[in-house]
């Protein structure tokens, strides 16, 4: 089985193969957990700030939302191509995503009170459940499993890209926004695929530690895991909004 293989584009085997190693400094699971915890704290702090700004002055929060989204995207691209900078840019990415998520979450909360806490709870509940399933061996990151999840994730990405292009011409993709039966089924499938991405990330982190990946990959792996968690949260938030509209 090829090591370090993940369907998360941030965490590919080739990334580890090409990484320059620093003597005496290698990746550990504990180090990755510590860095991921720190990044989550940064994300939550930034989210609380933009959430508060929304309720103080809703008009001023849009620059935070767009700035966070665009800034996060740019930082993600830089991190992917400059892995050695992860220790400096991954925390900045967490802050940018926090600003974006806080603003978006506040908008959803205004329409459907209680939806954010439910979505956050479901996101972390899913994370813990998938970690247990991975650690107990109930779900294994086999080559067949990886291939299926990778194909499904790529398909979702292409579908969303097409939807963005069509929206420029005022054409909506009903499955994405519809609260009908098929719209909810679509969201459930996407949430499931996002959750399965966590299995791939856990496997990559474990294999990276076993194979002695360079120390800065603790930051890089934490960044990759956060990308998946942000996606999972947004999809759960979308699903909950659909259920609330029924």
Tell me the layout of helices and strands:
Elements: H1 13-17, H2 29-56, H3 58-81, H4 86-111, H5 115-135, H6 143-167, H7 174-177, H8 181-210, H9 217-245
Keywords: Membrane, Transmembrane, Transmembrane helix
Pfam families: BaxI_1
Transmembrane segments: 36-54, 61-81, 87-108, 115-136, 148-169, 181-199, 219-237
Description:
The protein is an all-alpha fold. The chain has one domain (23-245). 78% of the residues lie in helices and 0% in strands. It has helices at residues 13-17, 29-56, 58-81, 86-111, 115-135, 143-167, 174-177, 181-210, 217-245. Helix 3 (58-81) packs antiparallel against helix 4, helix 5 crosses helix 8 (181-210) and helix 8 (181-210) runs antiparallel to helix 9. The radius of gyration is 18 Å and the shape is globular. Mean pLDDT is 90; it is low at 1-7.
Supply the key terms.
0% strand; disordered N terminus; 9 helices; 246 residues; mainly alpha
Briefly characterize the structure:
This protein has 246 residues and is mainly α. It contains nine helices and no strands.
Overall, the morphology is globular
Could you report the average pLDDT, rounded to the nearest whole number?
A: 90
State the major sheet: none
Q: Count of DSSP helices?
A: 9
Number of domains: 1
Terminal CA distance:
45 Å
What share of residues are in beta strands? under 5%
**Low-pLDDT runs:** 1-7
Derived from helix and strand composition plus strand pairing, the structural class reads mainly alpha
How many strands in all? Answer: 0
């Amino acid at each position: 089985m090829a090591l370090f293989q993940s369907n998360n584009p941030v965490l590919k085997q080739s990334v580890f193969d090409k990484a320059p190693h620093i003597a005496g400094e290698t990746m550990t699971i504990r180090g990755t957990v510590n860095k991921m915890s720190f990044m989550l704290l940064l994300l939550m702090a930034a989210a609380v700030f933009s959430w508060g700004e929304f309720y103080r002055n809703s008009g001023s929060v849009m620059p935070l939302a767009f700035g966070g989204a665009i800034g996060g995207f740019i930082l993600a691209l830089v991190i992917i191509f400059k892995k050695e900078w992860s220790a400096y840019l991954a925390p900045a990415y967490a802050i940018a995503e926090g600003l974006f998520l806080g603003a978006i979450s506040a908008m959803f909360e205004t329409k459907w009170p209680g939806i954010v806490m439910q979505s956050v709870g479901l996101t972390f509940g899913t994370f813990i459940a998938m970690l247990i399933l991975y650690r107990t061996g109930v779900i294994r990151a086999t080559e067949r499993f990886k291939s299926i999840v990778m194909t499904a994730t790529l398909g979702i990405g292409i579908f969303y890209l097409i939807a963005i292009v069509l929206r420029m011409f005022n054409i909506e993709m009903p499955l994405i926004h519809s609260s009908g039966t098929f719209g909810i089924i679509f969201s459930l499938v996407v949430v499931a695929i996002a959750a399965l991405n966590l299995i791939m990330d856990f496997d990559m982190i474990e294999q990276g530690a076993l194979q002695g990946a360079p120390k800065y990959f603790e930051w890089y792996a934490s960044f990759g895991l956060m990308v998946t968690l942000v996606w999972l949260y947004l999809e759960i938030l979308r699903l909950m909004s659909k259920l609330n509209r029924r």
